Amino acid sequence: MGERSGVLFLVGVLVCSALAGCLSDNEVEEESLIDLVVYYDLTNGTIQQSFIGGSQISFTGVTFSFDFAYTTSEYGLESFYVDPGDGSPATTVDASDSANIDVEYQLHGLYTAVLGATDINGNEVNKTVVLRVEQFIEWNEANSAEPDIMEINTTPGNEEDGPRRLTIDSTVENPSDLFGGSPVTVSWELTDPNSESKGMKSEQIADGQEASWNFNLEFPISGIHELAVTIDQGQNRINIDHIVEILYDPVESSPNPNQSNSENEEENTESE
């Protein structure tokens, strides 16, 4: 009985030793993998677009910046990359040259970007970040007798979900006439890509006065919507100001700013 117990004890010791060796190997393997650390201050932004008299005068896309400087690997890093998730090629940089990648979006949408790194031994690791890109459009017409139709494209820049809401804040002014003006009756109407009316309003505007139309369209379908202002009655010319926003559900990832940089900036400010 004693001999059998001794054998079992010896077998147990050997098994434990083998397991310990396996765990040690796994630990080494884990330590050898890339430690992906990426900092980014923003995960949402708004495209800015302006029109005067039907012609675009300015456009500013949304740029997100990603800092891979704190990413490490025991084998030495080879590259960093960001796949923007809009169908365009990934942006890749040589890790020995740069640790920063900027990605610009020129179309609204919810984007699942892939952030990754590779090392010289062929290892690769990545993570996903959801980015929210909305759009703000300003449209101005002055002294117009036949207002232009404003086209609003609600198609996102990828194949993900479309906008949550299309908002319109429109003001029409009947400018004062030095010789005594007359009232003017105008109508607003928003139609969808199927030419179906989604909302409308008519109002008479006295000389020197203005009127507004505020309208929200929930879950607009993809395509070109048309916002039209027509003069129903009166010979006056009118001034038009549209502000249109294309908005998404706030489901973006949380920002991941580099806190150490912020603390250093605060310390430098205090020392000054």
What's the layout of helices and strands?
Blueprint lengths: L1 H31 L11 E9 L2 E6 L1 E6 L9 E7 L7 E4 L5 E6 L3 E11 L4 E21 L5 E4 L11 E9 L10 E8 L5 E9 L4 E9 L5 E10 L4 E10 L11 H13 L1
Parallel strand pairs: 1-8
Antiparallel strand pairs: 1-2, 3-6, 4-5, 4-7, 7-8, 8-15, 9-14, 10-13, 10-15, 11-12, 11-14
In short:
The protein has about 270 residues and is an alpha+beta fold.
* Tally of helical runs: 2
The description of the largest β-sheet is: 9 strands, mixed
CATH names the topology of the domain at 134-247 as Jelly Rolls
Name of the CATH superfamily of the domain at 134-247: Nucleoplasmin core domain
Would you count the extended β strands for me? 15
Kindly report the average pLDDT value.
Answer: 87
3D structure, described in words:
This protein has 272 residues and is an alpha+beta fold. It is built from 2 helices and 15 strands. It has a domain at 134-247: Nucleoplasmin core domain (Jelly Rolls, Sandwich), CATH 2.60.120. It has helices at residues 2-32, 259-271; strands at 44-52, 55-60, 62-67, 77-83, 91-94, 100-105, 109-119, 124-144, 150-153, 165-173, 184-191, 197-205, 210-218, 224-233, 238-247. Strands 1, 2, 4, 5, 7, 8, 10, 13 and 15 form a 9-stranded mixed beta sheet that branches. A 4-stranded antiparallel beta sheet has the order 9-14-11-12, with no helix packed on it. A two-stranded antiparallel sheet has the order 3-6. Strand 11 (184-191) and strand 12 form a beta hairpin. The protein is elongated and about 80 Å long. Residues 1-32 have low confidence and may be disordered.
